[in-house]
Amino acid sequence: MKIDILLGLQWGDEGKGKVVDLITPNYDIIARFQGGPNAGHSLEFNNIKHVLHIIPSGIFHPEKINVIGNGVVIDPQSFKDEIDQLITMGVDPVKNLHISSKAHLILPSHRLLDAAQEASKGKAKIGSTLKGIGPTYTDKTGRNGLRVGDIISPNFNEKYQKLKEQHLLLLKQYDFDYEKQLSESEPNWLDSLNTLKKFNIIESEYDVNNYLKTGKNILAEGAQGTLLDIDFGSYPFVTSSNTITSGACSGLGIAPSAIGNVIGIVKAYCTRVGSGPFPTELFDEDGETLRKNGFEFGSTTGRPRRCGWLDLVALNYAIMLNGVTEIVLTKADVLSGFDEIKVCTAYQINGKIVDRVPFDNEVEIKPVYQSFKGWNADITQVRNYLELPVELREYIDFIEKETRVKVSIVSVGPDRTASIKK
Ligand code: GDP
Ligand code: IMO
Ligand code: MG
Q1: How far is it, in rounded angstroms, from Cα 319 to Cα 313?
Q2: What would the DSSP string read from start to end of 124-171?
Q3: Which one of 32, 273, 297, 301 would you pick to mutate in the ligand 2 pocket, going by the greatest count of ligand atoms within 8 A of its CB?
Q4: Measured between alpha carbons, how far is 328 from 413 in angstroms, rounded to an integer?
């Protein structure tokens, strides 16, 4: 069997959580392969909205197995909070959630380092979610990190104190009051390791490959988005992991030849939360309307998301990097009511028309737009593709033509059921 990969093709928050939950019935196993509690994946059914951070979005299907792979970074405290929340909803994840022993741990001092480093950057700040992601991946590649498998080691405390001391030395260099915050958060963090210990801690690379060998269907759930990738995003305004298809190979221990479909999630317009280039960003009433109608506020931090028109230059870059085989178009309903909808088809840089994302983050990009006629119907109850307004179908035809990738599902609302097969 092959493993399908679902990931975001923009700057995150494309609606990955909703779509994973929707298509989970087609799979036996749902696995996260990178990122950590910086992610906020929302899904909705029976009029209840759930937001998941490190737990895979298949968790509401009790017969499915969910895996947190080695490429993920876990904060035991936020993991415990998420588990407690699920338990209050009547979901008991202990049996069907498995965690890689090789996933790295986010320490309280990683979070403080994240905050201290961001504060020291002033205007150049990345806009991090401050969940400790950057410092934890730094320790991973610097070969200093602690992993989930370490928590059962008899000398875990010694290892923890040693790494914490290194962080304290670093924190002393910043003008940042960390002592009080650390003494407040550390006891609960250490206590939350007990929650983690209740779970099945496994060498997930063996399990994932065995599932494939025995004919099981696996879906790998990406976090963040391609344009936040550590290598190919608008560095340094990126996250600290590989958010693209290849991240699933290293983040789960699967061979490239095992990859089947690559499902790219695309919002019908663009949003970005945090700093960094955003060529089609709107600062006018249209941007405000997108934010208001799309309820564009961060699922993890509550920050307002920056909004703009769809950017085909960036989208085609993402499709190239990921080998996307199908697109799921989300939030099409949010475009209802606009007289005119624009799509960026090229960039104008220093008077030249280009179709590539430039290396230089500071260069001025003027988007070249193609205009489409809008529609004024509420489409949230539509479930049949041909009943969608013709203007929206023309918009989708154009996206398919320009990307050479088929749109397989159109999402018209946050609920599981608000989805149309094309
Ligand atoms: P993720 O990080 O990619 O999982 O996306 P988020 O959950 O952070 O953000 C997507 C937001 O849009 C959430 O509030 C979803 O409930 C909501 N959403 C998802 N699909 C649709 C859709 O088709 N229409 C509307 N109106 N909202 C949607
Ligand atoms: P999901 O999975 C949107 C952004 C942050 C910041 C940059 C670096 O919900 O789509 P980090 O905390 O990783 O150091 O932040 O990346 N960012 C996201 N933006 N959706 C996300 O996840 C994000 N995770 C990180 O806002 O600009
Ligand atoms: Mg999100």
Answers
A1: 10
A2: G------SSHHHHHHHHHTT---BGGGGGSTTHHHHHHHHHHHHHHHH
A3: 273
A4: 13
Alpha-carbon span 77 to 66, nearest angstrom: 19
Query: What's the pLDDT at 57?
Result: 98
Active site residue 378: no
CA nearest ligand 1 atom 21, residue: 414
Distance of CA 253 to the CA centre of its chain: 19
Indicate which atom in ligand 1 lies nearest the CA of residue 330.
Answer: 23
* Rounded distance from Cα 352 to ligand 3 centre (Å): 35
Expressed in angstroms and rounded, the spacing between residue 53 Cα and the centre of ligand 3 is 8
Decide whether any atom of ligand 1 lies within 6 Å of the 44 Cβ. Answer: yes
First to last CA, the chain: 25
Backbone φ and ψ of 17, nearest 5°:
-60, -45
Q: Is the pLDDT of residue 16 over 80?
A: yes
Name every residue whose Cβ is closer than 8 Å to that of residue 353 and which is 6 or more positions away in sequence: 346, 347, 368
Mean pLDDT for the stretch of residues 178-189 = 96
235 Cα: distance to centroid of ligand 2 (angstroms): 13
Burial of 46 (0-12, 13-18, 19+ CB in 10 A): exposed
Distance, CA of 137 to chain centre: 16
**Range name among 24-33, 133-142, 169-178, 241-250 with the lowest pLDDT average:** 169-178
Contact 311, 392 (CB under 8 A): no
Q: Is 31 helix (H, G, I), strand (E, B) or coil?
A: strand
Tell whether pTM > 0.90. yes
- CA dihedral for 22, 25, 26, 31, sign (positive or negative): positive
Q: Is the pLDDT of residue 85 over 90?
A: yes
Q: If you measure from the C-alpha of residue 356 to the centroid of ligand 1, how many angstroms do you get, rounded to a whole number?
A: 28
Task: Check whether 175 has a pLDDT greater than 90.
Answer: no
Closest atom of ligand 1 to 299 CA is 8
Residue 61 a catalytic site member: no
Model pLDDT, residue 365: 98
Which among 21, 41, 75, 333 is annotated as catalytic? 41
Q: Is 129 in the pocket of ligand 2 (CB under 6 A)?
A: yes
How far apart are alpha carbons 390 and 373 in whole angstroms? 10
Listed in sequence order, the residues at least 6 apart from 199 whose beta carbon sits closer than 8 Å to its beta carbon are 94, 97, 98, 99
Is pLDDT above 80 for 306? yes
Q: Give the CA count within 13 Å in the CB-facing half-sphere of 203.
A: 3
